[in-house]
């Protein structure tokens, strides 16, 4: 078959999905990945008997009744997978002793919040009613977020026709906007903590809808088993993957992509090139900024990206049985503000993995703390290895001291520590400015959920992009959908039917 060789840059979820569906449709694909393992940001690693997970909190499409469940089956992710559905999304502990529980069940959530703050009943019910409004959507369809099974299209069409204006309003509403409606100061703080403040509230509605429908379970074992499952499926289909193979340049000739050049100088040629790697690096470094429209340049100059993180993993000889299991953990107030890595914090968010005993020895717990952090701060420090290491150690010390306030004695129970900074994420994944999930979905770009971004660049043939830099919001399902959508497009270009073999 002519024109069938495809090089894929990046072995994260989007790259692996493009490879899997490419192999299914008769293309000879080859993935070049800079890291020594698959998955990109969907990753975990082991330290002293503990597993530190840097990604997964839930997996949309875990319910067999979801259309996306079939997609997970297509890419080989489900065999032997166990899911845990939790009753609580987030626990917010206030300085005045009150606790806000964001329950996954909508009715329970509404009742609790109204009892917590009767003065905010109208705003609360607007929020929970909005969640109920989007329950009609099976938001994990294969072609685009709103496209699902034929039997559901009528319901979706009706919802868009009848409730379109309300949905548009929620798209244009940020977390900040909604918080401004609330009166209770603790509830204001709690909602400000539940999601990224600049994020379009519309997408939080879907998260709660998925959780309510038990369609966002936690996969036992965490992130790396998911990435390894995709890798296994890809290799079984005959795909090739090269680790520790960083792509430095995408070759072009007469307006067509022809291959790649690796960091070691070797060239690899193909009829098509797909970048599932960092968008900024792809466009402005690998392609030297030669194929950029004013729109693309404006996106990279002004669209917000997910915040860079200071990520701390701990292994603790403690069970935390008194803390309820939750999807996104809990946060507690500090006695006094603390400066960590150049930023002042007055509370600490903690994600306990005591719901997954496979990540720690018996009776012990793996936990993570993720704080927004300044990429420039760490980038500057990284030029001086000693200064950089000292800053990491200081941040770790302060975080453990903060934990000691909530859990007396924990300092002596810490058996494993690991610290990752924005430059760590950049080094292992190539992600621009250490961002962990690409473009942030705001009212400005929320319409991309209905009208997806282009997966091509102007003036360059036989080149495509997939992943979080052409799918705002990122996430694992989005990565799979992006790769799937792209291969379907390539099949259309070649006038061939897109197929997915049974089994």
Question: What would your notes on this structure say?
Answer:
With 503 residues, the chain is of the alpha/beta class. It folds into three domains: 5-42 and 223-304 and 440-493, FAD/NAD(P)-binding domain (3-Layer(bba) Sandwich), CATH 3.50.50; 105-210, no CATH class; 309-429, no CATH class. Helix content is 36%, strand content 21%. The protein has 15 helices and 20 strands. The protein has helices spanning 13-24, 67-74, 106-116, 121-134, 150-171, 175-179, 185-194, 201-212, 223-236, 279-286, 294-302, 375-381, 385-406, 422-429, 476-493, and strands at 5-9, 28-32, 44-47, 50-53, 59-60, 83-84, 88-93, 99-103, 216-219, 240-242, 247-253, 256-262, 267-269, 272-275, 309-316, 330-340, 343-352, 365-372, 414-420, 463-465. The strands form five sheets. Strands 8-7-16-17-18-15-19 form a seven-stranded mixed β-sheet. The protein has a five-stranded parallel β-sheet with strand order 10-2-1-14-20, with helices on one face. Strand 1, helix 1 and strand 2 form a beta-alpha-beta unit. The radius of gyration is 23 Å and the shape is globular. It starts with a strand and ends in a 10-residue tail after the last helix. The model is unreliable at 139-158 (pLDDT under 50).
Structural topology:
Elements: E1 5-9, H1 13-24, E2 28-32, E3 44-47, E4 50-53, E5 59-60, H2 67-74, E6 83-84, E7 88-93, E8 99-103, H3 106-116, H4 121-134, H5 150-171, H6 175-179, H7 185-194, H8 201-212, E9 216-219, H9 223-236, E10 240-242, E11 247-253, E12 256-262, E13 267-269, E14 272-275, H10 279-286, H11 294-302, E15 309-316, E16 330-340, E17 343-352, E18 365-372, H12 375-381, H13 385-406, E19 414-420, H14 422-429, E20 463-465, H15 476-493
Parallel strand pairs: 1-2, 1-14, 2-10, 7-16, 14-20
Antiparallel strand pairs: 3-4, 5-9, 6-9, 7-8, 11-12, 12-13, 15-18, 15-19, 16-17, 17-18
């Amino acid at each position: 078959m002519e024109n069938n060789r495809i090089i894929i840059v990046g072995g994260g979820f989007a790259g692996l999905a493009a490879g899997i569906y490419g192999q299914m449709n008769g293309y000879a694909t080859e993935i070049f990945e800079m890291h020594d393992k698959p998955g990109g940001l969907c990753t975990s690693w082991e330290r002293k008997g503990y597993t530190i997970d840097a990604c997964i909190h839930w997996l949309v499409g875990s319910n067999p009744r979801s259309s996306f469940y079939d997609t997970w089956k297509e890419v080989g992710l489900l065999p032997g997978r166990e899911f845990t559905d939790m009753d609580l999304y987030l626990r917010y502990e206030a300085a005045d002793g009150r606790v806000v529980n964001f329950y996954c069940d909508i009715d329970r959530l509404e009742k609790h919040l109204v009892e917590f703050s009767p003065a905010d009943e109208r705003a609360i019910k607007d929020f929970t009613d909005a969640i109920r409004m989007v329950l009609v959507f099976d938001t994990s369809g294969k072609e685009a977020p709103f496209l699902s099974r034929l039997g559901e299209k009528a319901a979706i069409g009706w919802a868009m026709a009848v409730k379109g204006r309300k949905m548009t309003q929620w798209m244009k509403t940020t977390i900040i906007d909604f918080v401004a409606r609330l009166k209770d100061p603790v509830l204001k703080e709690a909602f400000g903590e539940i999601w990224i403040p600049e994020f379009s509230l519309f997408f939080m509605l879907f998260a709660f809808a998925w959780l309510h429908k038990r369609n966002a379970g936690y996969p036992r074992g965490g992130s790396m088993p998911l990435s390894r499952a995709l890798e296994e499926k890809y290799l079984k289909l005959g795909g090739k993957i090269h680790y520790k193979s960083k792509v430095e340049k995408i070759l072009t000739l007469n307006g067509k992509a022809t291959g790649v050049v690796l960091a070691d100088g070797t060239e690899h040629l193909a009829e098509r090139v797909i970048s599932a790697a960092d968008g900024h690096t792809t466009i402005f470094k690998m392609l030297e900024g030669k194929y950029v429209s004013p729109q693309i340049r404006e996106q990279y100059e002004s669209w917000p990206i997910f915040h860079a993180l200071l990520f701390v993993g701990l292994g603790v000889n403690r069970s935390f049985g008194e803390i309820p299991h939750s999807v996104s953990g809990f946060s507690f107030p500090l006695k006094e503000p603390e400066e960590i890595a150049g930023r002042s914090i007055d509370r600490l968010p903690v994600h306990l993995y005591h719901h997954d005993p496979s990540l720690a020895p018996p009776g012990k717990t793996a936990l993570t703390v993720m704080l927004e952090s300044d990429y420039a701060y760490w980038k500057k420090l990284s030029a001086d290895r000693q200064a950089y290491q000292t800053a990491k150690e200081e941040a770790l010390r302060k975080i453990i001291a903060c934990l000691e306030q909530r859990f007396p004695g924990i300092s002596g129970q810490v058996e494993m520590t690991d610290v990752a900074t924005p430059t760590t994420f950049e080094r292992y994944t190539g992600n621009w400015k250490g961002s962990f999930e690409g473009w942030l979905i705001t009212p400005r770009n929320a319409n991309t959920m209905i009208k997806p971004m282009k997966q091509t660049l102007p003036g360059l043939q036989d080149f495509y992009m997939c992943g979080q830099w052409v799918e705002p919001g990122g996430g694992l399902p989005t990565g799979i959908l992006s790769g799937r959508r792209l291969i379907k497009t390539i099949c259309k270009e070649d006038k061939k039917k897109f197929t997915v073999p049974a089994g």
